[in-house]
Amino acid sequence: MPSDSVLNHFIDKMGVELLFVIGLLVILAYIAVKSIPAYKELHLERIKSDHSIAEQRLDIDKQREARKAQEAEQEIKVQCDRTEQIASQNVILDSVARTMENLSAQTTTLITTINDSKDRSKSMNATVLDTNSVVHDTNKMIQRISDSLK
Prior knowledge:
The protein has 150 residues and is an all-alpha fold. 99% of the residues lie in helices and 0% in strands. The protein is rod-shaped, with a radius of gyration of 62 Å. The relative contact order is 0.02.
């Protein structure tokens, strides 16, 4: 059996190294058997964690969008309120403008009436002065007649 002797001779020469290599392979196999499931579990945990983070980001984005929508609605409401206030103020300003126009027209009418009254007063003053002059002249004449009769 030459093959046994070759094998024995090989084992004798390489025995320690062979046992070391076999032992090393067994250790590596054991480490691989134990670490591969742990690696898969860590990988799954990382995927779950990444998924959880992605869901949280989506929730934050949804909340942000909801807040933006709410702020936009509030801004629209504020703009509508401002528009209503401006419309109210415009109505008030139009009313004030019409009132001012009416007051201006009334003032013009009153000024015209006062000027007419002044003119009539001047005319009446002239008439009174004329009447006074006539009365004064008449009085002088009566005085002269009365003085001449005496």
